[in-house]
Design a protein that fits this description.
This protein is α/β, with parallel strands linked by helices and about 170 residues long. The chain has one domain: Cytidine Deaminase, domain 2, CATH 3.40.140. A seven-stranded mixed β-barrel has the order 1-3-2-4-5-6-7. A hairpin with a 6-residue loop joins strand 6 and strand 7. The N and C termini lie far apart (about 45 Å). The protein binds zinc ion (ZN).
Amino acid sequence: MKLDEKFRIKNEEYEKTKKILMIRIKENLIRQIEKHGEKTYPEECCGIMLGKMNGRIHEIEQIVELENTQEENRRRRFLISPDQYMKAEKIATEKKLELLGFYHSHPDHPAIPSAFDTEHALPWFAYIITSVENGKAVRTTAWQLNETRERFDEQELNVKMSDGVFQPSDS
Ligand SMILES: [Zn+2]
C-alpha cells in the first residue's frame, strides 16, 4: 500500500473519531522515553508509540526507539522519514498493535511543540515531548494536532503507576 493511501485511510479513521480523549501509558514507558532523551542529549531523540485504541482512550503499550534522521540541527528538530514511517507501521503490524504516535525530546527547551513540530505533525497521532535540561529529563507532556492542523492541543496523560493505579502525569 502506498503511503498516500495509508494517510487517506488514517484520515478517514480520524474523521470518525476526531479527537483523542486521553493517553494512557505505563510509568516504565515514560521512564524509557526520558532515558532515551537523556542518552541522546544534547541531540533530540525520537521514537514510536504502539498500543491499543479503546474508543477515544489511547493506551500505549510499547515504545520503539528510532534514529534521528535529520541531517542538520539535530538539537532542535526531529523528522520521521517516510521510510521510518513505513518501518513503524510494519513493527505495529508485526506486534498486532496500532501505531498511536511519536515521541521526541527537546534538549534545553520546554516540553511544548515547536513551529517545526506543528508544520510536520499528522493530526490523528499522539505526540509525547520530553524536555531534557542539562542532560536530565524534567517534564513530559502529550499533544495532538487540532483539526485544522494550525496548533497542538495538550492531551491528558494518564500514567499507570507500578501499583496499577492511573494518575495524571503532573500529580
Ligand atoms: Zn519538537
